[in-house]
Amino acid sequence: MPIHQPQQQTDALPDRTGVQQAEAALVEHYPRLVRLAYVVLPPALGRHRRVLAAHAVVQRALPAAGSRARGQRVPGQSRRSGAPEGVERAPGGSGPDRGPSGPAYGWMRLRVLRTALAYERRPRWWPGRLPAPAALRPAVPVVWGLRLFPRAGGVDELALDRALSTVPGAVRAAFALQLLEGLDESGVRELLAAVAVADPADAVRRAARLGRPDPAGAQTMLRSGEFDPCTVQTRPSDLLRRRHRVRAAAVAAALCVVAGGLAVAADAGTRPSGDDRDRAGAAAPALDPAGLLRTAAERWADTSRVDFTAWPARGGRTGDGELLGRALRTWSGPPGTVRVSTTPGTVAVPPAQPPRLLFAGEVDGAAVVLFHDGGVRVVRYAEPLSGSGRAALDFARVDDADVTSGAAVVVSRTGDSARFLLAPWIAGSTTRDLLAPNTPGRPLEVGRDGVTAPVPRPAAGGACDSWPVLQLRSSGKIVEKHAFLVTDLGDLAPAHLTYTPKPGRGAPARQPREATGTEALLAWARTACSLRTLSGSGVRAVNNWAFAEQKLPEGGASAGWLCTRADTWRGPGRVLVQFLGPAGSPTDPAAVVADRDDTALCSRFGQHVLAGTHWKAASGRWYVLAAGSRAVTRIEATGTVRGAAGGPTFAVRAPRDADVELTASLRGGEKLAAVR
């Protein structure tokens, strides 16, 4: 993406009086401006670097005191009386001009916003894995030997911070300008346009979705200590390493003088720039094995955050500093000999702060290390114990994981099987075949380090004769009698399988439940093979929704309609609508009648669905069948054949290749088109 050039009409410097007023506004509202910068800056910088960068952005916002230029309008401010339409004087005057609604503050906010957004913009030639050029500039203040962090908030604040990390800087800016600065949508769009945001209207729309359904609560969280870089906590970064360096200082100083002179002569053209050294120094604490975060073994039983942050470090090589160091260095900059894979929507950037160690041990002839970056990713590093095989580095998204979606991670895949590292709260594990719904599960052996015995993998091609899944049971310390299914779809984190039963007469809408009951297993037996199309797409969970049941023409046999929705870790979902006609076997595959990507259909945000298909009766006659969800009151067909029926199902005689358009009326009077 090219760097947007700032608009000249809003970047002009004020006169001497204007600079003085801007300086006064900065001093008076410094915490407010620093908080704004902190929210807008990329969370990938890490909390320590983001704190320092937020202060640097604000402190660099003032121009030289002797600068002079004409007064210009300040975007995002109300127009002052006496000024022509569309024109605003430069910051100047006194008193109210320095307030949050005055031009001096508005002008400072404009400069802060522009600089903060520059941290996320890269020119086309800039390497994608490196921070933007602005993020590498030497910044004041500089802190040596300490790490700075805002005060930790609760679960809600953490969830908001994670949500902000998944959107571009322009969306974070729109979100902060509305909730922290109190600007209306038009003011936000105007201000974003002034700082060269490509699509301000889209940024405002996406920011509005971030604050739903409780914008007042989101505003309170943004004003909490979690997002306050002026009130911070500290801890040492590299204390032990600095102690060792001090002890060896005398000898090292002499050697460095000699070696430094030789290096200048031999490598003057290849030594790293100051920005590269700054970046390496900032990343050093995150690459130190001694700084890895480790959770206590029983933490999961005494916390409300039952996710990857509650996993203890397990495995026989958790104390192997050399292995952990190699894994961290490879994560920071994988050499060309390392195979790197990422699930869709996952970034492969180096860690911004010390990650959490989940596992380090030997599995199937490889040394394997698993990390959690504390936010949205699980990272797997594997190197062969012998031979000439290549090391591997795999990235997967796991943001907002919970008891089920954070229950297992793949540690090894060999041939047609895989081994999983189970969460510490898993008290029981079995394997079963979705294509054998009446066969009970088989016990799965789990080692003391939480690694399972090999589990068969679903076949990627050829005949779909079986579909292995894990049936896991949570500890009673988490939830009683809670069993659930997960399946390997080619990513590090297996997908959670659920089921939503048929609608009841006059009953409220059903909610997804665990797919361990008889009805759920029978539905999955006919749809499991459709999971092949989801392999490697970063799927978090798949739900089978039995949205309708229909009596068929010519005999009254019943058919079912399922909406199979796959939700990805990054948000978008995929929907398959499947028709379950009469079958001679419980595993006869359903017919896929609609396939839609990037849709809210069949979720809590898309609760209405209508679908149709052609069907051949035993007599040889063809029909058009249609069915809708519980709120459908009437279905109409137009095109080659016409017809209508009250209720959520419909059938009409039609040629095999009849082109028919289906629409439905909902209980509230809205119209619904059929999904294709």
Instruction: Compute the CA-based radius of gyration.
Output: 30 Å
Helical stretch tally: 15
β-strand number:
27
Largest sheet: 10 strands, mixed
The oligomerization state is single chain
Indicate the low-confidence ranges by residue numbers: 1-13, 68-72, 78-98, 239-252, 254-282
> What is the approximate shape?
globular
Structural class: alpha+beta
Summarize the amount of helix as a percent range. Answer: 10-25%
Distance between the termini: 35 Å
Mean pLDDT over the full residue set: 82
The amount of beta strand, in percent, is 15-25%
Characterize the structure shown.
There is one protein chain. α4 (47-59) packs across α5 and α7 (169-179) packs across α8. The two termini are 35 Å apart. It contains 15 helices and 27 strands. The longest helix is centred in the middle third of the chain and has 19 residues, at 249-267. It is 25% helix and 25% strand. With 676 residues, the chain is of the alpha+beta class. The protein is globular and about 90 Å long. β14 (483-487) and β15 (495-500) form a beta hairpin. The strands form six sheets. Strands 10, 11, 13, 14, 15, 16, 17, 18, 19 and 20 form a ten-stranded mixed sheet that branches. Strands 3-7-6-5-4 form a five-stranded mixed sheet, with helices on one face. Strands 24-23-26-27 form a four-stranded antiparallel sheet, with no helix packed on it. The model is unreliable at 1-13, 68-72, 78-98, 239-252 and 254-282 (pLDDT under 50).
